[in-house]
């Protein structure tokens, strides 16, 4: 039974998904900070560079859907920590290729292992059928949200004319 004193949004599907997402991100962020002294964005940046290397900064920013300036600051910090190597691009002094250093590759392997371990824990908790149902359900929610966002963007563009 629901508590009549609860705010109306608390029982909405989108609110529950947001709450679950926030809890997952917080748990992950705390563990990344404790075990690796990394933020979630640094973790994602390392794994993106590992996947895409050698890669330009602008491509990492585009793939992560993050602000290029923010990714630039993160990459600079990770270069200083010796996790990323920046190799100048011969024909363009403003551009460089990024790749992981040896210690960056070792860290990426440990981060991937941690992610796989956490995924296994969630899948064990949910069971095979539950995990498959959750993934299908989230795909439906994601598609609906994307369609709604596109419709809102069109409405916003129309209103600005």
UniProtKB/TrEMBL annotation:
Keywords from the named record: DNA-binding, Transcription, Transcription regulation
Q: From the Swiss-Prot or TrEMBL record, give the protein name.
A: Winged helix DNA-binding protein
Coiled-coil-forming residues are: none
Example of a GO MF term: DNA binding
Question: A Pfam family matched by this chain, by name?
Answer: MarR_2
HTH marR-type domain: residues covered:
10-143
Tell me which species this is from.
Answer: Caenimonas koreensis DSM 17982
SUPFAM superfamilies according to UniProt: Winged helix' DNA-binding domain (SSF46785)
InterPro entries in UniProt: HTH_MarR-typ, Metal_resp_HTH_trans_reg, WH-like_DNA-bd_sf, WH_DNA-bd_sf
């Amino acid at each position: 039974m629901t508590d009549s004193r609860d705010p109306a949004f608390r029982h909405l599907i989108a609110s529950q998904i947001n709450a679950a997402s926030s809890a997952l991100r917080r748990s992950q962020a705390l563990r990344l900070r404790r075990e690796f002294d990394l933020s979630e964005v640094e973790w994602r940046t390392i794994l993106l560079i590992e996947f895409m290397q050698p890669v330009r900064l602008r491509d990492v920013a585009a793939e992560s859907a993050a602000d290029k300036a923010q990714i630039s600051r993160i990459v600079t910090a990770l270069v200083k920590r010796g996790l990323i190597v920046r190799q100048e691009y011969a024909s363009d002094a403003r551009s460089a290729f990024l790749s992981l250093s040896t210690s960056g590759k070792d860290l990426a392997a440990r981060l991937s292992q941690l992610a796989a371990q956490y995924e296994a824990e969630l899948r064990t908790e949910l069971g095979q059928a539950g995990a498959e149902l959750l993934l299908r359900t989230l795909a439906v929610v994601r598609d609906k949200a994307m369609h709604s966002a596109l419709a809102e963007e069109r409405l916003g563009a129309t209103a600005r004319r």
